[in-house]
Records
---
Amino acid sequence: MAGLLVYIHHDDGELSPQSLGVLAKAASLGGDVTAFLAGSGVDDSWAGSLGGHGAAKVLVADDGALAGGLSQPIVDAIESPAREADAVLFGAGVVSADVAAGLAARVGSGINCETTDFTLGDGGAVAVRPALGDTVMVESSFASSPAIILGRANAFASEPTGSGTAPVERVEVTVQEWSSAARMAGREQAETGGVDITEADVLVAFGRGIGGPENIPVVEQLAKALGGEVAATRAVVDAGWTSYSMQVGQTGKTVSPKLYVACGISGAIQHKVGMANAGVIVAINKDVNAPIFEFADLGVVGDVLTVMPKLTEALAAR
Amino acid sequence: MNIAVCVKEVPSGTSHKRLDPATNRLDRSGDSELNPFDLHALEEAVRIREGGADVGEIVAVCMGPASAQRALQKALALGADRAVLVSDDSLAGSDIAGTAHVLAAVVAKQDADLVLLGQQAADADCYVMAAAVADHLERPVVTQVADLTVHGSGIRAKRQTEHGYDVIEAPLPAVVSVSDAINTPRLPSIKAIMGAKKKPLETLSAADAGVDAGQVGESGAHSVVRSVAPPAAKSAGVTIEDSGGDSAGQVVELLAGKGLI
């Protein structure tokens, strides 16, 4: 099975748009693309519907050990078909990245992270990624196959390419003892409700640079003065300062407001992929080397707790 | 219980990051530092010990050039009991797969029950090392962990994914990469910095480390950089220095000019 194999991640049956985006991109290259789905009790007609996203064939690994949503049993399941492929492609995602990394180690392959473009030519796969704070584009080829290619979040659009149904083939699964040693002990779904930050024209977002949750009112006042809503980084959500529904970035929401004011946010890639398409980006950060200044339209190097209230004041005075 | 913390030396935030046009490798001639994400892994190891767990030793493990000894000195100042550097000309140019192979080989010799890593390297923006090392070691892995509890025979880890939070339990030995939200790393005291100089720092060659020479270095790399180009042009932003909030007027002016207020 030479050709491209695309790992399709799903969360309890909800297909990852990042995986579907990579599948659509792979299909656009012309050759036959095989999709790979892992789970427990996978329905054939659901799997076959990936034909509508560009898959010529769908491999299904169906086993109780694949029910938990953990990466290591999936590495066991995908290993055998991966060894036959020219390249194995992954959309962005926490579990997808873990599967890609484990697979690269397992089969002794090169892995390209943060991929924004890829092709398959006579010399094998070629992948492109932005690097060094996105100041250069690096194009890599692979000395062996399969090439492992992991996409950047939101780099590939997940538009259905047709309404076709692809043939489904079930693969044998042997899960090793050590790779099923971890278990999912509990899951907390993201809370819904509250303000939908993806609809806001103006967002004032904060990161750990604001010092502590006691300073969130300063952010709220600035947001109010700008007629906008408040958003946050993963770090402050993980730290429990605010709720997950306000999070922008790879594991949070993707936003494209007219104005994005980043307060005390370093601008790590996981955050950038969620807000880089904002119309105007203003960043306030005390660290002149913060990556956010590489892509802000206006960067203010200064103390965020001094600048925010002064800005609120100046806006009120207009 | 013993803890190994994998760390990396990266170009420091204050030095300009560039690729060497002759080799397409990261230019490491400038200032370097301990990868900031790794500070959280070291801090977590120390907190596990301070939290009352029976931690025999904390060992910091690194692959890198000889200069990476400085990064390991910092790891020792931050609480590691000893450090191991794998440094060998044959390792230069190793790709992710090669690096994972080396780290796994060294960690396997350290008798570590828990292997901790930072969530990513600040120079490569890659977040795949923990899962790759875990596969080599054939141990369970949990990545991007924001809350970690270690009990007698296992771990309980909470991490964020695209849908919310997962709580994952795994037996020891295990591999964990920690999120930068898991803790706030402390600064080393002068006493700790001085004390670090007396702690053991061992340097191993690739052969000492038991590395398969065919998997490492530029010749063993499976991923090969073909070309480096500038990104699509984007209008350069403006950066201004604030003093006491005096930038507010300029920000308001810009927003008004763009019709945003």
Note: The helical segments of chain B are 36-50, 68-77, 96-108, 129-137, 190-196, 217-220, 248-257.
---
Amino acid sequence: MAQIVPPTPVLDIARGIASLDEDIPRVLALFGKTAVEELGWRRPNRSSLLVPIEGTHNGVTENYVLRLGFAAYRKWPPSAQFVNPNTLTYAHPVDQHHLPILTSPECHVHANYAAANGRTLQLICCSATQEFYDTAHPVEPALIWNEQNTFYTTVAAIQKAMASFYGGRFAKL
Amino acid sequence: MAIEENRTNSGSLDEAVEHLKEAEVHLEHAREDEAKAEREVKEAIHEIEEASQHDEVNVNELEKTTFKVKIHATLQQVWDKSYKELKLERKPKDVFQTASAQPKSLMEHLQLTLEQARDRKVIENFHFGIASETGGA
């Protein structure tokens, strides 16, 4: 099917926070939980969420921290970045080893992606992340983010790739 | 006269012994039939119990649904039923997985029954999820 390049996300932090407030109980209900902590998640501030992500490669299980940002949510998917668990930020190249190697055709992690505008960034290349649209990736219309999705769509897409396409940790530079 | 009487008595005894043997054979057959009937009753009761026993499963995607299936339903059957229950369109690259903080793909275990999957520790409970296709590169 022909791919198109969707428009670039527009930030609306107030709406993002309100949508996150609204969606957290909805997502927790899927698991029969009442607090994000019960799933091991954390909400360090009103506009972000920290989600532990686990991957097993060659019998070795590693843990990562995914930081979701809700500045353009829910019109657009959350920003998704793997971060240093100590600083909760990502700086290349020093934090590269906090990234999982993911090579799924639906979800590919780039440690230092060079966007067309000259900007470089960590990119979880997946139509369920805000950065995918920020970097103007073409996508099949049926797979474009829609407002019926929740941030759990993003988490599930990354976990889906981790289950089958995880290749260990990026090298420490 | 006495000899003849003895012969007659002996004949009656032989006859009686023969009848006893026949009766014992009949009794043995009757016991076999009874044992068979008991087995059939037990099997029928087991079948009824199995047919009426349904275990609750939970499946989530964007919404959650709960429905009952037999413990001998395969993961493939549970996955298939999930679309109907969720009123969800099936997409070729969907993945059926466990529903937990760290979900596991069940795509290599779809032929297992719920019971087998639980016994083999493939699943911990009857909570499942469907991960839909996304675009990427």
Note: The first helix of chain B runs from residue 2 to 52.
